[in-house]
Design goal:
The chain has helices spanning 2-6, 37-62, 69-96, 103-112, 138-144, 152-163, 177-181, 191-196, 226-258; strands at 13-17, 20-23, 123-132, 164-169, 175-176, 200-205, 208-218. It is of the alpha+beta class. The chain has three domains: 2-67, no CATH class; 78-117 and 226-250; 119-218, Chitinase A, domain 3.
């Protein structure tokens, strides 16, 4: 066995179940992503044992007279054909797909599909900070976080880069209020009233000061702003292009073949 396996192009013979044989080269795909020899060895051993169990059951099934082997072959062929067609479409789409999306296309999609962008929760623009209670000059931040003066943002930004455990301020972009609650432990608030009042709060909890300023908001059950949905719209447009391109390519290939001498109906 060792002598024969050494001359085999598939590498070392690892296991045999009746006439079925497993060789070293059959396992190459399972080593991808494993950096250590120990991981590879363990995976190899598990695969060999799994292959043996599978072959025992497969061969038992092949010898079972009540199992329609022709039906299995037909379904296998059908699955193979479906997989090949899917891979063909995927390869051609990757070659031909136009991924450039203009701002006009985004706006057109947004205006024509308003019902898709109804908000289930509040969107907010906010400033928030999380600062350790032993950080210096907390009172200065208490003055600046309300953003009453133009220089307040600059002062907060300088301070936050040095002392803030967490800091967020982006006046151009919206976030879900519920996502904000994952960062700031607000308790026992009336969410509707808290947001619509554009609340500005400072509180202490578990060794940290929290500062929160609700700068602007969008009501739930209203239409989400296009600035928040832009990336989402681009993904939808790409998906629409992919579906159309798949269908067009399939029809093109079929039409070209039928118009050639390669298809004959008898």
């Amino acid at each position: 066995m060792i002598s024969c396996s050494g001359n085999n192009e598939r590498g070392e013979l690892l296991a045999r179940v009746n006439e079925a044989e497993l060789y070293e080269n059959d396992l190459k795909h399972i080593y991808q992503g494993f950096l250590t020899a120990e991981d590879s060895a363990a995976l190899k051993s598990d695969f060999i044992l799994s292959w043996i169990d599978e072959q025992i059951l497969v061969q038992e099934a092949m010898n079972k007279e009540s199992i329609d082997q022709d039906e299995i072959e037909r379904k296998t062929e059908s699955f193979k054909n479906d997989l090949l067609i899917s891979k063909l479409e995927e390869a051609l789409v990757n070659e031909r797909l136009d991924t450039v999306i203009t701002e006009d296309e985004v706006e057109t999609y947004y205006n024509e599909h308003q019902s898709e962008f109804e908000l289930n929760d509040y969107l907010v623009k906010v400033l928030y900070l999380k600062i350790s209670t032993d950080a210096p000059d907390i009172d200065k931040i208490a003055q600046h976080y309300k953003l009453n003066k133009e220089e307040d943002v600059e002062q907060i930004d300088i301070y936050a880069k040095i002392y803030a455990k967490n800091y967020y301020y982006d006046p151009e972009n919206w976030i879900y209020f519920d996502d904000l609650l994952k960062e700031i432990p607000l308790h026992d608030i009336n969410k509707d009233r808290f947001i619509m009042k554009r609340s500005k709060v400072r509180f202490e909890e578990s060794g940290y000061y929290y500062f929160l300023n609700i700068i602007d908001y969008k009501l739930k059950n209203t239409i989400s702003p296009i600035s928040f949905e832009r990336n989402n719209i681009k993904e939808r447009i790409i998906n629409m292009r992919v579906r159309k391109l798949r269908e067009d390519l399939k029809n093109e290939i079929i039409s070209n073949a039928k118009n050639s001498d390669n298809v004959t109906i008898y």
